[in-house]
Amino acid sequence: MVIHSVRARAHLKSRYGTKVKTIGAGIGGTVDLYQARDKYVAIKIFDDRESYESGNEYESRVTAEYTLLQKLDHPNILRVVECVVSLPRRRKVYLAMEFYPLAFHDLIMQKSTPQDDLLCYWSQILEGVAYLHSCGVAHRDLKFDNVAVDATGTIKLIDFGAATCNPVAYGMCGSESFQAPEAFSKISYSPIPTDIWSLGIILYHILAGKFPWQAARRADPDFAAFLESNIVGFDTEHEAQNLVRACLEIDPEIRVLTAALLEHPLLDKLPCCSKNTHRKHQL
């Protein structure tokens, strides 16, 4: 529900308590952590409207994230609580969401996290992305920072500020290291295959402990070498490398689909989860 209120901050305080701290910044806004007794909620405060936008145009643009998330229902997708719009003059929009205590980025950077556990988490990311694609939605900004883990060890895709249902996209959004080469072009492209590329980058980092290149541009020497050889290098062999190579197909028109990735036998071989059942990690 989108709530319009002349006392938006008072409404948020009455429902969610007091602000504890700012916990992040995403596309179009910052995210604060609120606490009421032992319950935590994350609240995204959207950036002010652009000078060329009317109040109604601004509200329509920023509430689109809430409208989209309200329609989605999957265990690996962020859940939203409500959207509050302050009135009447300096219109601000607040998005209340479930809070997840652990960042996937931290798990990646902790050298003690077993690789099989990270692969299990990646399979959950894949399932969330597959669900989005089945709904005609592209996330467009998949990266470590936009993946969280709840208290039971379930992966949650977050920050849908760049998400789109449009079959055509223009320009790059998000972090360069995770973006597909077509996102750097000056022509339109299909956004769903760019999510597949990002999945491949995340998986490569899980296996190799680093990024394959800084950005998928010809000016990047590591990416240029990949274009010449079409080989993604690994220090050690792992069955998941075939998944990486499928995701990092240069031509987006023949890049693998999530449905095919879900059928890969590796997902059933992981000791911590299968295609339909995930082990609950105690964090």
TrEMBL record:
Instruction: Tell me the domain of life.
Output: Eukaryota
Which Pfam families does the record associate with it? Pkinase
A single GO BP: intracellular signal transduction
Q: Which InterPro entries match?
A: Kinase-like_dom_sf (IPR011009), Prot_kinase_dom (IPR000719)
Q: Which residues form the Protein kinase domain?
A: 17-267
> Which Gene Ontology terms of cellular component type are present?
cytoplasm
Please give one Gene Ontology molecular function term for this protein: ATP binding
Keyword tags: ATP-binding, Nucleotide-binding
Q: Which PANTHER family match?
A: MAP/MICROTUBULE AFFINITY-REGULATING KINASE, MATERNAL EMBRYONIC LEUCINE ZIPPER KINASE
Q: What name does this protein carry?
A: Protein kinase domain-containing protein
The beginning of the lineage is:
Eukaryota, Fungi, Dikarya, Ascomycota, Saccharomycotina
